[in-house]
Amino acid sequence: MNVLILHGPNLNRMGKREPHIYGHMTLEEMNDRLVQLGAKWNMNVTCTQSNIEGELIHIIHEAEGRFDYIILNPGAYTHYSYALRDAIASVEVPVIEVHLSNVHARETFRHTSVTAPVCQGQIVGFGWKSYQLALTAIRGFTEEKTN
Ligand code: DQA
């Protein structure tokens, strides 16, 4: 099971960026935890981050045939990037959208996700554990397939 965790814009600023919203953990610390958890569950977890819309699109295209799942935090692109949405819709790889913060409890522009409708599902509001929950879901789907 190969899982790509893809972080969008400004997530490289985790730990420094608005810690009252996003917490104190750095992206590197979070990625380490997720890779370790994946290893425990027999998943090969690869983490990557980009601030550039086109690069995220390219990474999603390239994920086809290489990854079984993508866990994607599109950052602010969530709210307006039709290009990212089309990229997700264009690949066979299922995508789970995650957000650290509860976007529905924040500014109204964050209540809309243009990407979620083409994802398998969305997990929001649990800090870094939103990603952990996405890995848990993938683990569950895999177990269902093998049992
Ligand atoms: C975010 C929520 C977005 O609204 C915001 O633009 C981000 C982070 C989150 O993980 O909570 O960059 O995706």
Features:
EC 4.2.1.10, lyase, 147 residues, DHquinase_II, five-stranded parallel sheet, Rossmann fold, amino-acid biosynthesis
Verbal overview:
- The model has no long low-confidence stretch (mean pLDDT 97).
- The protein starts with a strand and ends with a helix.
- It has helices at residues 19-22, 27-40, 53-63, 82-90, 129-146, and strands at residues 2-7, 44-49, 69-73, 95-99, 121-124.
- It has a single domain, classed as 3-Layer(aba) Sandwich (Rossmann fold).
- It is built from five helices and five strands; from the N terminus they run E-H-H-E-H-E-H-E-E-H.
- With 147 residues, it is an alpha/beta fold.
- Helix 4 links the parallel strand 3 (69-73) and strand 4.
- Catalyzes a trans-dehydration via an enolate intermediate.
Short description:
The protein has 147 residues and is α/β, with parallel strands linked by helices.
Most strands sheet:
5 strands, parallel
Helix content: 25-40%
Assigned CATH class: Alpha Beta
How large is the count of helical segments? 5
What name is given to the CATH topology? Rossmann fold
GO molecular function: 3-dehydroquinate dehydratase activity
Keywords: Amino-acid biosynthesis, Aromatic amino acid biosynthesis, Lyase
Catalytic activity: 3-dehydroquinate = 3-dehydroshikimate + H2O
Active site: 22 (proton acceptor), 99 (proton donor)
What secondary-structure arrangement, pairings included, does this model have?
Blueprint: E1 2-7, H1 19-22, H2 27-40, E2 44-49, H3 53-63, E3 69-73, H4 82-90, E4 95-99, E5 121-124, H5 129-146
Parallel strand pairs: 1-2, 1-3, 3-4, 4-5
This protein binds 1,3,4-trihydroxy-5-OXO-cyclohexanecarboxylic acid.
Binding site for substrate: 73, 79, 86, 100-101, 110
Function: Catalyzes a trans-dehydration via an enolate intermediate.
Keywords: Amino-acid biosynthesis, Aromatic amino acid biosynthesis, Lyase
